[in-house]
């Protein structure tokens, strides 16, 4: 029996990705007892199951409102805070738009992008590969956070004070640069050190010009 793995998310709302009891019950019922469900630390559940049933299962899951994403070396769904300052002040709409844009792109190594609606940073954006922090009406971007191991480190600030309209072009530009220039299985934190923050600031400048 050949096995296939894919990711499932509940959809992005206030609080980020929160599965309801109904969604979890439907997920278990649809994938069946022979499948395995793995927890992740980035808002997705991984389903491992017989690939002969994949199309049927994914279609049923999508009809319930659950979202399907590829598992493995891809950019993950946005890891967000709980928007405790309110949806408008914390930027829920831009966070939703960012999530819809970034998820599911093939990358040299799994890419995690964090979002915080204020400087409290409850989603720990500085420990993500790319971290976005809303600062009143602008955004700061951090790169290269490393949460695990002996070399754990906070991300470095790439740029501050960018406007909402600039955010998605900058993040997609960084993902594209990583896709095109990252080595196979090279973690993003190592990529940042190898390429340098100076070079990545040039990438950001090019993103501004190509808006």
Automatic annotation (TrEMBL):
Alphabetic keyword roster: Iron, Iron-sulfur, Metal-binding
Nitrite/sulphite reductase 4Fe-4S domain ranges (all copies): 89-209
Domain of life: Bacteria
Pfam families with a match to the protein in the record: NIR_SIR (PF01077)
InterPro entries: NO2/SO3_Rdtase_4Fe4S_dom, NO2/SO3_Rdtase_4Fe4S_sf
GO molecular function: heme binding; iron-sulfur cluster binding; metal ion binding; oxidoreductase activity
Metal-binding in keyword set: yes
Tagged with keyword GTP-binding: no
This protein's name: Nitrite reductase
Biological classification of the source: Bacteria, Bacillati, Bacillota, Bacilli, Bacillales
């Amino acid at each position: 029996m050949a096995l296939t793995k894919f990711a499932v998310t509940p959809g992005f709302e206030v609080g980020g990705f929160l599965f309801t009891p109904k969604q979890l019950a439907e997920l278990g019922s649809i994938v069946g007892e022979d499948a395995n469900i793995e927890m992740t630390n980035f808002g997705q559940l991984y389903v491992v199951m017989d690939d002969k049933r994949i199309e049927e299962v994914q279609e049923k899951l999508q009809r319930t409102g659950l979202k399907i994403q590829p598992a493995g070396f891809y950019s993950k769904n946005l890891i967000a805070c709980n928007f405790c300052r309110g949806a408008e002040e914390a930027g829920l709409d831009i966070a939703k738009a960012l999530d819809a844009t970034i998820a599911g792109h093939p990358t040299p190594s799994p890419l995690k992008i964090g979002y915080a609606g204020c400087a409290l940073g409850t989603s720990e954006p500085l420990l993500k590969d790319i971290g976005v922090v809303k600062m009143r009406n602008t955004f700061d971007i951090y790169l290269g956070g490393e949460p695990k191991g002996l070399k754990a480190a906070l991300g470095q600030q790439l740029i501050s004070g960018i406007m909402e309209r600039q955010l998605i072009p900058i993040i997609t530009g960084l993902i594209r640069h990583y896709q095109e220039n990252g080595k196979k299985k090279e973690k993003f934190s190592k990529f940042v050190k190898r390429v340098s923050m100076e070079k990545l600031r040039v990438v950001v400048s090019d993103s501004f010009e190509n808006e």
